[in-house]
Write a structure and sequence with these properties.
It is a single chain. By secondary structure, the chain is an alpha/beta fold. Among the domains are: about 170 residues, Rossmann fold; about 70 residues, Luciferase, Domain 3 (Luciferase, domain 3), CATH 2.30.38.10; about 100 residues, ANL, C-terminal domain (GMP Synthetase, Chain A, domain 3, 2-Layer Sandwich). The protein has 16 helices and 25 strands. The chain has a 9-stranded mixed sheet with strand order 2-1-11-10-12-13-14-15-16. A 7-stranded mixed sheet has the order 7-6-5-3-4-8-9, sandwiched between helices. β14 and β15 form a beta hairpin. α1 packs antiparallel against α2, α1 runs parallel beside α8 and α2 packs across α3. The chain is globular, with a radius of gyration of 24 Å. Bound molecules: adenosine monophosphate (AMP). The site of adenosine monophosphate has 20 residues, from β14, β19 and β20.
Length: about 550
C-alpha cells in the first residue's frame, strides 16, 4: 500500500528559495577577485540567480545542457550554482589547477555549452579556446568596465547579461533524479572521470551535512567554506548553508595563512572547512605572527589524512575543535565524520587524539564495509584492514558517459582506499590501495608513517613511497620538507623519533630531504610524481643512504 504523504521533487532551487523566504536578511559576504569586500542578502542572491537563469535561457541554454564554471568561491559563483542547476541545466565545476590537456579533455567530454569564468582564468581560457569544440561562448564574471581585452570567441559580460533581466522567474519543477551538476575527479593517472549528481542526491546530501551528526549547521553560525566550489562540491556547503540559513563568508582567491586569518577575525567566523595544506599555512602564519583565531569554534579537515600534530595545535593552542571528515568526489562528497561520543571529551588528551586521527563514523545515507582479497567482509575490530566499499543514495553508480557501472552487482563502490573500522564504528584510512607498502607479506601504512614524521618538530611535510627490496618486496622511503631548511638537520634524530612512534619494521630504509613535495590539483601528495622523481630508488637502484 502506498502512503498518503505529499510527493514533491527534491530540487536544489528549493534550497535557495527557502533561504530567501525564511532568512531573507541573512548575509553572504565575499572577497572578490579584485580583493574587495562584497556583502548582500540571500534574497538578493536568489533574485540574481533567477536573472542568471533568464539570461542563460535567452542565450539558448536548455534543460540538460551543460554550463561550466571556472571560478573561485565568491557570490557570483554561488549564483551560478543555483542559476544553472535551478533552470534544469547542468553545472560543471572545473578545477583550474588541472593540466591544460586535462582541462580541454573534460570540457569536450562534458560538452560544455558556455563557460562562466573569473577574470583570473581568462588567459588560461584564451590558450585553451581553440581546442574547446562545444563551447559557444565565455561569460566573464565582472562589470562591463572591467571586461578584459582578451580575444575569447563570443566573450560576454556577466553583469551586463544580468542587468538585462528582470528576475521575474519561477524555477521549473521537474523529475528529482534529473542531472544537477558534474564534477571530474582528478586521478593522477588516466583521464579524469566525471561524476554526474542528481537534484535528489544533492538535496539528500545537504540534509546529512546539516545534521548535528554531520557538520551541524544552523542559522546562528557564520560559515567559511575555504574548500573550493570546484573541488568535490565545496563539501556540500553551498547547498547546506542555504538549507540551514547560515551567514556565509566566501574567501575569493587568496587562501594563504595571512588572508585566511584576517578573514576569520574580520568576519567573526564560527566554522570553516579545508584540506590540511591550507591549515598548515594558517598554523605557520599564526606561529610566526602571534595572531589568533579566537572566534572560531570548530573546523572540518579532510581531503587527506590529518596529522595528530595539526589537531593538537588547533585544539590545545587555539581552542578550536577539529572534526576530521572523509569523503570523495564520487560521494558528493561526505562519507564519514569524526565527532566525539559521550564521555570522549573527558579522556586524557592523548587518548582523544588517538581517536581523532581516525576518519570517523559513516553518516546516515552511506553504508560502509571493508573487504579482503576474497571480497568477504572483514571484522570491525580496528585491526583488520581491507578495501573500503560504500553505497548509498549520494554515491556514484556509473561515471559520466561510461558504459559499465562503477559498482559491483550489489551496488558497492570500491573507494580505492584501504581502511580499518573499529568496534565503535570509527573508520580509519591506512592508505590508497595503490600506495600501501607491501613489506614481507605485511602492509605498512604510508599515511601513518607520514603522520608520525610530521610530529617531529623539524618536519613541515612528509611523504612515504614504497621502493623495491629484493628480500621484502618493498620498503618505505621517507621524503621530507624541513620547517627551516637553512637549519642543520640530522636524519638520525628523525629516525630515533620515529622509533618511538611506529613498529621497528615500519621504519624507513632511507630518508630524503627535498625543498618541495609535488601535489595534485586537489592538494594531495602526488605519489606518482614522487615515484618518477625517485625512480632509481623505487626500482631498486640504491637501497640505503
Ligand atoms: P577527492 O575525490 O579529490 O575528494 O579525493 C578523495 C580521496 O581523498 C579519498 O578516496 C581518500 O583517499 C582521500 N581522503 C579524503 N578525505 C580523507 C581523510 N580525512 N583522510 C585520508 N584520506 C582522505
Amino acid at each position: 500500500m502506498l502512503a498518503d504523504m505529499q510527493n514533491g521533487p527534491l530540487l536544489v532551487s528549493h534550497l535557495l528559495e527557502h533561504a530567501a523566504r525564511v532568512y531573507p536578511q541573512q548575509r553572504i559576504i565575499s572577497r572578490t577577485v579584485q580583493g574587495e569586500r562584497h556583502e548582500y542578502t540571500y534574497q538578493q542572491a536568489h533574485q540574481r540567480s533567477k536573472q542568471l537563469a533568464m539570461a542563460l535561457q535567452d542565450l539558448g541554454v536548455r534543460r540538460g545542457d551543460v554550463v561550466a564554471t571556472l571560478a573561485w568561491n565568491t557570490y557570483r559563483h554561488f549564483e551560478c550554482w543555483y542559476g544553472i542547476s535551478g533552470m534544469g541545466a547542468i553545472l560543471h565545476t572545473i578545477n583550474p589547477r588541472l593540466f591544460a590537456e586535462q582541462l580541454s579533455y573534460i570540457v569536450n567530454h562534458a560538452a560544455d555549452s558556455y563557460i562562466i569564468t573569473d577574470l583570473t582564468f581568462v588567459p588560461l581560457l584564451e590558450a585553451l579556446a581553440p581546442q574547446l569544440k562545444t563551447v559557444k561562448g565565455y561569460i566573464v564574471m565582472c562589470a562591463a568596465d572591467e571586461m578584459p581585452g582578451a580575444k575569447l570567441p563570443n566573450m560576454l559580460c556577466y553583469e551586463t547579461l544580468l542587468a538585462a533581466q528582470s528576475g521575474d522567474y519561477n524555477w521549473p519543477e521537474f523529475e528529482e533524479n534529473s542531472a544537477c551538476s558534474l564534477c571530474y575527479t582528478s586521478g593522477t593517472t588516466g583521464n579524469p572521470k566525471g561524476v554526474l549528481y542528481s537534484h535528489r542526491s544533492s538535496v539528500l546530501h545537504s540534509f546529512a551535512v546539516c545534521a548535528r551528526s554531520g557538520m551541524g549547521l544552523d542559522a546562528s553560525e557564520t560559515v567559511l567554506p575555504i574548500v573550493p566550489m570546484f573541488h568535490a562540491n565545496a563539501w556540500g556547503l553551498v547547498y547546506a548553508c542555504a538549507m540551514a540559513g547560515c551567514r556565509i563568508v566566501l574567501p575569493g582567491p587568496h587562501l594563504d595563512g595571512a588572508s585566511i586569518c584576517s578573514l576569520i577575525n574580520d568576519e567573526q567566523v564560527d566554522f570553516t572547512a579545508a584540506v590540511p595544506t591550507v591549515w598548515s599555512m594558517l598554523l605557520a602564519y599564526m606561529e610566526s605572527s602571534g595572531k589568533r583565531i579566537d572566534c572560531l569554534q570548530s573546523v572540518i579537515i579532510g581531503g587527506s589524512a590529518v596529522p595528530a600534530a595539526m589537531i593538537e595545535s588547533f585544539e590545545q593552542k587555539y581552542g578550536v575543535e577539529v572534526w576530521q571528515a572523509w569523503g570523495m568526489t564520487e560521494l558528493s562528497p561526505l562519507g564519514s565524520i569524526n565527532k566525539p561520543l559521550r564521555g570522549q571529551r573527558d579522556l586524557p588528551y592523548a587518548e582523544q587524539l588517538a581517536i581523532k586521527v581516525k576518519q570517523g563514523r559513516a553518516v546516515f545515507g552511506v553504508e560502509m564495509k571493508i573487504v579482503g582479497p576474497d571480497n568477504r567482509a572483514l571484522p570491525h575490530d580496528g585491526k583488520a584492514f581491507g578495501r573500503l566499499m560504500v553505497r548509498g543514495p549520494w554515491v556514484v553508480e556509473r561515471y559520466f558517459r561510461a558504459t559499465e557501472p562503477a559498482t559491483d552487482c550489489d551496488g558497492w563502490f570500491d573507494t580505492g582506499d584501504v581502511a580499518t573500522i573499529d568496534a565503535l564504528g570509527n573508520m580509519q584510512i591506512t592508505d590508497r590501495s595503490k600506495d600501501v607498502i607491501k613489506s614481507g607479506g605485511e602492509w605498512i601504512s604510508s599515511i601513518d608513517l607520514e603522520n608520525a614524521a610530521v610530529g617531529h618538530t623539524d618536519i613541515r611535510e612528509a611523504a612515504v613511497i614504497g621502493m623495491y627490496h629484493p628480500k621484502w618486496d618493498e620498503r618505505p622511503l621517507l621524503i621530507v620538507v624541513l620547517r627551516e631548511p637553512q637549519k642543520p638537520f640530522n636524519k638520525a634524530s628523525l629516525q630515533a623519533y620515529l622509533e618511538t612512534k611506529v613498529a621497528k619494521w615500519w621504519l624507513p630504509d632511507a630518508i630524503e630531504v627535498v625543498t618541495e613535495i609535488p601535489h595534485t590539483a586537489t592538494g594531495k601528495i602526488n605519489k606518482v610524481a614522487l615515484r618518477e622523481q625517485f625512480a632509481e630508488r623505487v626500482k631498486g637502484g640504491q637501497l640505503i643512504t
